[in-house]
Amino acid sequence: QKEVEQNSGPLSVPEGAIASLNCTYSDRGSQSFFWYRQYSGKSPELIMFIYSNGDKEDGRFTAQLNKASQYVSLLIRDSQPSDSATYLCAAPQFGNEKLTFGTGTRLTIIP
Amino acid sequence: DVKVTQSSRYLVKRTGEKVFLECVQDMDHENMFWYRQDPGLGLRLIYFSYDVKMKEKGDIPEGYSVSREKKERFSLILESASTNQTSMYLCASSPGILATNEKLFFGSGTQLSVL
After folding, report:
1. Which chain A residues are closer than 8 Å to B90 by Cβ?
2. CB A2 within 8 A of CB A67
3. CA A84 to chain centre
4. Is the model's pLDDT at A79 over the cut of 80?
5. What is the pLDDT of residues A94-108, one digit of tens each?
6. What is the Cα–Cα distance from A45 to A32, expressed in whole angstroms?
């Protein structure tokens, strides 16, 4: 079992709707999670970090963490065409010194 | 702004060649990483380093080695390039322990083609 798993998509969402991206992890010891966004041909950039159970909001983005069920999700409200990208979930491993990524979910916002 | 610079954006090499990929960061970060990214496989960690002259294997170190002689520079070496090493290589750095919200800063990547 992979340490961090995501649906690869692609996921298509109409403009203005809510995009929901999900990630599951296998290591119950994982304490924190990152969401990175990667535009086509570009490098990943951090958009959200969460370490507590529950929700964390930042503008149109909400990260949700459920440690009991071992999943973390990212909600994007009022989706915009500029949100079209690949979203990567990641968790620290090996004493928190390295980051393991999921395979990413490709999101397309349809105008 | 933190800058992570990779020496080449595109590189074409022949099978069996020795290949050096260079990465330099300008923010005195402790940790440096080499990932490769392939369609459907995501980002996979090759090697990382948390100090000068220190290195740790990642998830896919076979066929690769690294060198970190100075804090700001982390080199990835393909001793004898093979076609299955054709990939996008991403270097990254971070100032400290990742679990404490220390993010990775990525370079722009090197697309390596081995023919």
Report:
1. 43-44
2. no
3. 13
4. yes
5. 666 678 899 999 999
6. 17
